[in-house]
Amino acid sequence: MLLVVWLLLVASAGSTSAEGGWVLWTKSSNLWVDQENASSGKPVRTFPTKIECLKQMEDVMSQVAAWMSGNGIHVSRDGNTLNLQITNPPDPPRLATVDYACVPDTT
Predict the structure, then answer these.
(1) How many structural domains is the chain composed of?
(2) Helix H or strand E encompassing 34
């Protein structure tokens, strides 16, 4: 449920367009108890320059980390990756990672 809210937060950063020169891309990997690792990736928004893309990436990562931390989720950052640990006793902790990247638009 919390990851759904996170996805909505990221989606609010803007919509994708085929006209930009750089694309902010996000990919989440979840490790749930008794489930295999699942990954998905999606473009968030396009930008005319790499500098604008990188700035938005920093802003989004800060917003997501602040929101998650404010909702009792342990967040650590490793470069362009947010590591999340969701605890909801008595359930075992759940782990997730969210990777961000600015890549050239090839469309």
Answers:
(1) 1
(2) none
